[in-house]
Write a structure and sequence with these properties.
Layout: H1 24-59, H2 64-99, H3 104-116, H4 123-142, H5 144-157, H6 172-186, H7 191-204, H8 210-222, H9 251-260, H10 263-266, H11 278-289, E1 294-295, E2 301-305, E3 308-312, H12 323-341, H13 350-358, H14 371-389, H15 395-402, H16 405-414, H17 425-437, H18 450-465, H19 471-523, E4 528-529, H20 530-551, H21 556-572, H22 578-599, H23 606-624, E5 633-634, H24 638-643, H25 659-667, H26 672-680, E6 686-691, E7 696-706, E8 710-714, E9 720-725, H27 726-734, E10 738-740, H28 746-761
Antiparallel strand pairs: 1-2, 2-3, 4-5, 6-7, 6-10, 7-8, 8-9
Length: 762
């Protein structure tokens, strides 16, 4: 969002059709009317579907009580739906009115605190809160771009009123709240029926908001409001409040650079040995504390330091809150924060929680913190900022780690060895969880994954039981490590079998390639009877493959089988001189015997072997008999050439290619840099791979290189996921379809990154 000082004091809005100035509130009223008209249609459709659904549920009910529940809900909704719709539209109208209210800043602050949800919520209210957060989060992700553009345009339209997701009347959170409030005031149904109704609201209203956003953006575009929205200001939310730890727009790219450049060298990087004592931390943070601070609505001062925000809690006007008191308050909020973080997308809540706790006694005069505590809190918040922007972590792992924010913060506050001891249980737990979850397959329901469930349950236990005794963390760490060892033992066995199987397949491929090449070199210019071409490229090819597998390329058996092809070709040619005829008479029965001997290893059925030999004998005899019908001689046909693995020999020369074909040919040229990277990539490296066949991104480990050409990738259970040649892997790396992941210990790696960025910003 453009800084306020850079904006004009007024702006003339011009309607495209009339070319007359339009007053901003009238333009906003036009958006409101269109949105409400569309909402009425969506609600009508939703209530029709509601009637049908509750009727179907009552028919499938397994008890009279359940059937009555659905019938009562259906009747109540049918009677009260007009009142719900009226109240819903009234709430939407109120949202537009409050947007123009000069007290909107207070409303934003209150909504931000509500979203944090530190107030105690229990029973049915908690169910509703979780349902509201879930459907809001999903809708915001679906319409991220449209919401961002709408918020930016409304922000420029209304000049002095900052518009964000917290006060945008068309944001999914506001629309969902309006519907929930309308249901609470109008309907008397059970929580089960209410949650079903909310799911229907998400399906038939929230998921259909796209055209409302498009219409609103078009109205503003026609009025000349921000024809081009500045993309460099885009955030993961339409607008970030100053108090939130949002990744810097460049941080994602920076993280990607850190993880993937240089690609092949990442796996070989030495482990980071991170240690940071309190004195060094204070010196490091001194530059972050300097500069011109900005004030949040709560009164807390902040400084922007590179990609991070530094919160000046020590400058708060209230009395100092001692570290033990802060830790005690964090302990009380710990289970609730964990429960709510488990239900939403991962986010950094440290600054929100600390600010709210400091303002708990007197919101107008928030309490202050000691300087060392302030430094620790900001450092831990910066660490979790990097967790959220790290490209190597699956979203599920980011969510699990973010649920440890309060316990980790408490540990860092009361145990200074946390930053200096690499063997600290909490640090080891973070690294163990990320290492274990590094290979989670998010294309399948993780709730069915025993390891994921164990980690999630353990984190829940820590948040429920951990106060200051780290025994609960150490016990869970030991239990988790034992589970991982057992799983690793099984996956190692499976991976070993996978490698053995692939080595066997590779030997077969090599044998087949050698046999195909040997035959092709002999037959590529020859003209033989069609039946003989078919026999050699089909039946005798199998004999050569098996001989190669059993005896090898340099064996006497292979030389015999290969030389037999030359003898058969000679017998098929016409011969008129005495010496050649005598040799042919002597050689033919010998060749037939050698064919029979060779077929014994390829054809088990004696009758089938005899039929093959009889056909060859009959063919050779017909070639020697002038009275017999003569076979047509021909070169290898297209199918036979393909059988010998030479189907791609007819590639167009450069001068015959079209412009598009030439462009594609240039595009497919492989950079030598990536070919060398693929050659040197060590086994055991994890990659993020865009699978073109399934259009999904998968995580896989390079298990083995078979003969330095076939690269076998497995999942965490040791089962084969894909196979690539060295050239294919290099090609995919060149065009960013295969990305090496940084699997070094997460805590040390990200903390080292934080320190490096702070030093660079100093």
């Amino acid at each position: 969002m453009a800084p306020r000082k850079d904006r004009p004091d007024h702006i003339e809005l011009v309607n495209k059709s009339s070319q007359k100035p339009v007053h901003p509130p009238k333009l906003l009223g036009h958006i409101q009317n269109q949105a409400q008209e569309s909402a009425v249609r969506l609600l009508d459709h939703m209530f029709s579907a509601t009637d049908d659904l509750f009727y179907d549920l009552s028919k499938r009910a397994t008890s009279n009580n359940e059937q009555n529940l659905y019938f009562d809900a259906m009747r109540e909704i049918r009677i009260k739906k007009k009142g719900v719709a009226t109240e819903f539209l009234r709430q939407i109208s109120t949202l537009f009115t409050e947007l123009l209210n000069s007290d909107s800043n207070k409303r934003e602050t209150a909504q931000a605190e509500d979203e944090l949800g530190l107030s105690i919520v229990e029973g049915d209210d908690l169910e509703i809160e979780l349902a509201l957060n879930n459907m809001t989060g999903r809708t915001r992700d679906t319409y991220k771009l449209e919401l961002y553009e709408l918020a930016m345009r409304l922000d420029h339209l209304l000049l002095r009123i900052p518009v964000s997701e917290d006060n945008n009347p068309l944001d999914p959170k506001q629309i969902s709240n309006a519907f929930v409030d309308a249901c609470n005031t109008q309907l008397r149904v059970t929580i089960k029926a209410r949650l079903i109704l909310f799911k229907l609201f998400e399906k038939h209203v929230l998921k259909q908001l796209g055209h409302i956003y498009s219409d609103a953006n078009q109205i503003l575009l026609d009025a000349g409001i921000l024809p081009k929205v500045p993309r460099q200001l885009h955030r993961s939310r339409s607008a970030e409040a100053p108090g939130q730890h949002a990744p810097d727009p460049g941080s994602s790219a920076a993280a990607q650079h850190d993880v993937f450049e240089p690609r092949a060298a990442t796996a070989a990087q030495p482990a980071v040995n991170f240690q940071l004592d309190v004195n060094t931390l204070s010196a490091l943070m001194s530059s972050a504390r300097s500069g011109a601070p900005q004030a949040l609505p709560s009164g807390t001062l902040i400084n922007s330091t590179g990609p991070y925000t530094y919160y000046l809690y020590s400058s708060n006007p209230g009395p100092i809150m001692a570290s033990p008191q802060l830790s005690s308050l964090l302990t009380k909020s710990q289970p609730l924060v964990d429960r709510q973080l488990a239900a939403i997308e991962p986010r950094n809540i440290i600054s929100d929680v600390v600010n709210q706790l400091l303002a708990k006694r007197d919101p107008e005069v928030p309490q202050a913190l000691e300087q060392p505590d302030e430094d620790i809190i900001n450092l831990i918040a910066m660490f979790f900022d990097n967790v959220l922007s790290d490209e190597s972590l699956p979203l599920a792992v980011q969510s699990l780690i973010c649920r440890l924010q309060i316990p980790v913060l408490k540990i860092a506050l009361h145990d200074r060895s946390f930053l200096t001891d690499a063997e600290h249980p909490a640090r080891k737990l973070i690294n163990t969880i990320t290492n274990a979850g590094f290979s989670f397959d998010e294309s399948k329901p993780l709730e069915r994954d025993p390891l994921y469930r164990k980690i999630a349950d353990g984190i829940q236990t820590i948040n429920r039981l951990y106060k200051t005794d780290e025994k609960v963390i150490a016990e869970f760490l030991a239990d988790l490590e034992e589970h991982i060892v057992k799983e690793s033992h099984k996956s190692d066995l499976v991976e070993k079998r996978t490698t053995q199987t692939e080595e066997g397949k590779s030997r077969i491929r090599q044998a087949r390639a050698s046999a195909q090449n040997a035959l092709y070199q002999k037959l590529k210019t020859a003209h033989l009877p069609e039946a003989m071409n078919e026999f050699l490229t089909n039946t005798w090819l199998q004999v050569l493959v098996i001989t190669h597998l059993k005896h090898g390329h340099d064996s006497a058996e292979w030389v015999e089988s290969e030389s037999l092809v030359s003898d058969i070709m000679w017998l098929c040619q016409p011969h008129n001189d005495e010496r050649s005829l005598m040799r042919k008479k002597r050689l033919q029965p010998e060749v037939l015997q050698r064919v029979e001997n060779g077929l014994e290893i390829a054809i088990d059925n004696p009758e089938a072997r005899l039929q093959k030999i009889a056909a060859i004998e009959e063919l050779l005899a017909s070639l020697s008999d002038p009275e017999a019908p003569q076979s047509d001689f021909a070169p290898l046909n297209r199918h036979q050439i393909e059988t010998l693995g030479k189907a791609d020999l007819d590639q167009k020369p450069w001068e015959d290619m079209t412009a598009l074909e030439r462009q594609q040919s240039r595009y497919e040229q492989l950079s030598n840099k990536y070919f060398l990277e693929a050659k040197d990539i060590p086994e055991g490296v994890w990659l993020s791979y865009d699978d073109e066949q399934t259009s999904k991104t998968v995580r896989c480990k390079l298990s083995s290189k078979i003969d330095s050409e076939s690269y076998i990738f497995v999942n965490r259970f040791g089962f084969k996921m894909m196979e690539k040649t060295r050239r294919q892997l290099a090609y995919d790396m060149q065009f960013n379809r295969a990305r090496i992941l940084d699997s070094r210990p997460l805590f040390e790696r990200l903390m080292d990154k934080v320190v490096t960025q702070l030093r660079q910003a100093a």
